[in-house]
Predict the 3D structure of the following.
Amino acid sequence: MFSIGKASEQSGVNVETIRYYEREGVVPKPGRSSGGRRLYSADEIARLRFVRRCRDLGFPIPIIQTFLSFVAKDGRSCGEVRSLAENHLAEIDAKIETLLHLKDALQSLLRNCDDGSVACPMLEALMKEGFGEGVLR
């Protein structure tokens, strides 16, 4: 059995994040020592590592909880996991597209900037009605 500090070190998950995952029910609350300290098993640390890897890929907590429920079942469905991952990838692609539009808009504004001029073209463009409409949508 390992302390929360060792669990953090071995899983790569911050101590406060471990506590958050416990509060949110992402991972079960661990057993406690006679002194009330949290104690983690190797399996619980492996679960924390799994959650960290999923978070590193940007999966939201509800999807991670779904993944964990599949892991707990013997008859987990690879098709369901694939579908969730494909949906997540589509969301990432949409975010990338939005960021590329933002980049283009900002580069356009920067091209119009004349360092040292009294009137700033970027601020004027940003004040114009309709500028950038739909960039974030």
